[in-house]
Amino acid sequence: MADHSTPEAHNPERTREGLSRRRLLGTAGATGLVLGAAGAAAGYAAAPSAAATPLTSLGSERAMFHGKHQPGITTPLQARGHLVAFDLAAGAGRKEAAALLRRWSDTARRLMAGEPAGSRDTDVARDAGPSSLTVTFGFGHSFFGRTGLEKQRPAALDPLPDFSSDHLDKNRSNGDLWVQIGADDALVAFHALRAIQRDAGTAARVRWQMNGFNRSPGATAHPMTARNLMGQVDGTRNPKPADADFDERVFVPEESGSGKGGPAWMANGSYAVVRRIRMLLDYWEKLSLKAQEEVIGRRKSDGAPLSAGSDGTETTEMDLEKTDGSGKLVVPINAHARITRPDQNGGAAMVRRPFSYHDGFDADGVPDAGLLFICWQADPLRGFVPVQRKLDRGDALSQFIRHEASGLFAVPGGAAEGEYVGQRLLEG
Asked: Which of 21, 267, 292, 366 is the most exposed place for a label (fewest CB within 10 A)?
């Protein structure tokens, strides 16, 4: 878990629109007022006008499907997430993959607009608005061999190196295709997951699937960096879209194909590293507060660095050289926040956009819980890999976590109007 913050809360990719899942075209009484026109969604079916109740802003938030980049990368963290990987079915190749991405893109566009998935819609999200739903698609290393597109496989998609902290389950790692779903309503998120799985039909089968969650928007008095299941503020130094070098760090340049960033079809895309990181909470929770803070290098209460004074905040610059009265470093040499700082890793940076998870308890009551770590970067060899290698060599947090699954996926740029995601690869 690297020390970065969530993307900015105000993002042009997410707009507050009063859309219903089936656009309600009726009017309310003699005034002719179109229901839902004032920032509210009316739900799937046309209800009697007197019973129409506007949604809260939480339900009416909408992310845009079409754009320069795919949604779900800079979109603010959502309350519910699903990650699912697919393998193409035996005999399925480039033609079948193209038809699948076309179906998936059409479904994602509909659902993100607050519309039903199609003629076979399950009605699970009938009463909800778009709820900030995003659906993001990526290709794994194996996809290119299965479709005869090996020459189009980016060098940046080479398999990640082995790390000493890895305890990876191959059945829950990698995959030909990867889909990330996020929404601020659990039913909206599940509805999208089910629609995507049904759309796969006979072309692809689920390889693995994981469920995650975050704090719901509006649950705190003011916007805050998220906390993880260890209770720590998690994500203080994330690159922000307003940073001058944000696009350079996160997205493949538009001039891809001319020697910069890989093949042309990846222009404006990004690379997602996905890790299922189990937190050994029974051991962590036995530590004193002081010991927990020294492992991370930050105060648990507000995320301020240990080197900050009582008036320090989460954004106070960390003083790596500060010592206490006995000459001991205030921020320990193996503190997680020290090791993951970009200036301690040759400038390596990535946007973390994780979900927490809890998959129950074993027979001894030990929780299977932790972080679905997802990070985005223009090149994982300059982003995730150098940071993880350094963590491998002495992160104090490593004894309290276990990396149990892993994947790396090439996520192409956004689809233009009339296009489907990956069209430039599959039809280029």
From this structure: 366
Decide if 52 contacts 29 (C-beta within 8 A): no
Please state, in angstroms and rounded to a whole number, the distance separating the CA atoms of residues 243 and 239.
7
Q: Find all residues with CB under 8 Å of 5, minimum gap 6, and list them.
A: 225, 235, 236, 237, 238, 240
Tell me the pLDDT of the chain (428 aa) as tens digits.
655 544 444 454 444 444 444 333 333 333 333 333 333 333 444 444 455 555 578 899 999 999 999 999 999 999 999 999 999 999 999 999 999 999 999 999 999 999 999 888 999 999 899 999 999 999 999 999 999 999 999 999 999 999 988 999 999 999 999 999 999 999 999 999 999 999 999 999 999 999 999 999 989 998 889 999 999 999 888 999 999 999 999 999 988 665 556 899 999 999 999 999 999 999 999 999 999 999 999 999 999 999 999 999 999 999 999 999 999 999 999 999 999 987 777 778 899 999 999 999 999 999 999 999 999 999 999 999 999 999 999 999 999 999 999 999 999 999 999 999 999 999 98
226 token code pair: 């998220």
Count: domains in the chain: 1
Whether 306 is in a domain gets the answer no
Residue 399 lies in a domain: yes
What are the φ and ψ backbone dihedral angles of 124, each rounded to 5 degrees? Answer: -60, -35
Helix (H, G, I), strand (E, B) or coil at 344: helix
Q: Is residue 147 part of a domain?
A: yes
> Is the C-alpha dihedral spanning 99, 103, 109, 110 positive or negative?
positive
Contact (Cβ atoms closer than 8 angstroms) between residue 180 and residue 73: no
Q: Is 360 helix (H, G, I), strand (E, B) or coil?
A: strand
Cross-strand pairs, 408: 273
Residue pair 46/26 in contact by the 8 Å Cβ criterion: yes
End-to-end CA distance of the chain: 37
Determine the structural domain holding residue 191 and report its residue range: 56-297+332-426
As a whole number of angstroms, the distance between CA 185 and CA 55 comes to 12
Q: Does some domain include residue 47?
A: no
The first and second tokens of residue 424, run together, are 């430039």
Strand partners, 67: none
Active site residues: 234
Residue type, 95: K
pTM of the model: 0.88
Question: Cβ distance 85 to 193 under 8 Å?
Answer: no
**Residues 267, 411 contacting (CB under 8 angstroms):** no
